[in-house]
Amino acid sequence: MASFCQHATSLLLRIPSLNPPLLRTRLPSLKHSLSLTLQHFFPFAANLILPPPPMKPHILFAEGDSAVSLTVAESAADFHFLSANHPRPVRALDPFVPKLAPARVDGDTRVEPIMALQFTVFPNSGICIGLRCNHVAGDARSLHHFMKSWALVCKTGGDLTSLDGDSGLPSLDRTAVKDPYGLELVFLKAWWSLASTWKNEDQRSVLDTDDHHSLRATVVLCRDKIERLRHWITNQLANDNENSTTLHMSSFVVISALIWVCLAKSEERNSKVNKDDDDPYYFAFVEECRSRLEFPLPTTYFGNCLTVCFALVKAAELLGENGVATAAKAIGKEVGELNRKPLKELENFLIKFKKIKDSGWKHVTVVGSPKFDLYETDFGWGRPKKCESIHFRDSTAFLIAQSRDEKGGAEVSLVLSKDQMSRFNAILEEILMGLV
Questions:
Q1: What are the catalytic residues?
Q2: Which of 112, 138, 337, 408 has the greatest count of CB atoms below 10 A from its CB?
Q3: pTM of the complete model
Q4: Reported confidence tier of residue 409, pLDDT bands at 50, 70, 90
Q5: What Gene Ontology molecular-function terms does this entry list (predicted)?
């Protein structure tokens, strides 16, 4: 609902033979296929219209008037360094992901572009496709659908018929979405209240945090380790007389539990917080609802169809010996409840999230999902060398994605200080070594 939430993604495509003659065919094919694909995914080429209340924000697309900005650049930066998993400065990829064009004001209405793209050429190494888009146009599934479709159109030389079929074209039918709980009005009121506090662009922009000393790294978890972790957690909960068969123990749940505990412990070693503390630790995550609703939507539904969940574990339990199993139990219960009541208390999530932040309680948010494999995005030059999302900048969030090299494996992207990164890696290794 908020126009300040953004996807910011880079795809580093390795093309060792990339030279000027090859560029003359590669770049035009990228541009042409983008233009063709946006004909079907036109909300990304539109503007977000933000009128004053009581009018509703809406997306407006004018035929022949694309709001997408495209930048083409060349870089002498080290392609291999940028596409590695090891820790790198958090801002290392910033030059390759564009900012959205500035909003304009038309009377008392704000007009904001939704998408910006950048193609950065690394001579004799590859191309980086950098993308930034407003989350209001679509969730991760919608963006993933667009990227795969664009890649397929490019790979087939501009053949739009390649998108034919049940899973090809996006479904843009908003009438398919029902609102039995009156959520639209709840979120509209919250939006109007938030927008009324913005006096100028600087006040409503994302703060430029002091992250110059932070590092971004990717942890790769192979399928075998994930399965061993799942088995270990199930046994731990069985030993605690828990009916583990009723808990949802997906890869997302067990990976989230593992990373949550490692982050909490790596932070507490530094802050020396009393581990007997009963203060709550919150874990926030977003789940897709297309197939969970009473009125199921097609997987190709283009837009946002999400709900927000909060798992809670007391500090003493999260930081204790069985912290990972306890965390998995808490997250798994929330997912199980979501399957039964997907829109449960969604109208209160903004109030709850504000309360958590204002209270100073510890909280971590996970974004992404191992269900979405951006490495399937083949523009005709093979799988990307590295896919990276850069819209989170600190230790209060991490991202889970499908592994590049193994089906069933996962990649976890983190942003931490150098010292906390070292502690995190040591704790993670200790936990994984202890799995039996």
A1: 135, 378
A2: 138
A3: 0.92
A4: very high
A5: acyltransferase activity, transferring groups other than amino-acyl groups
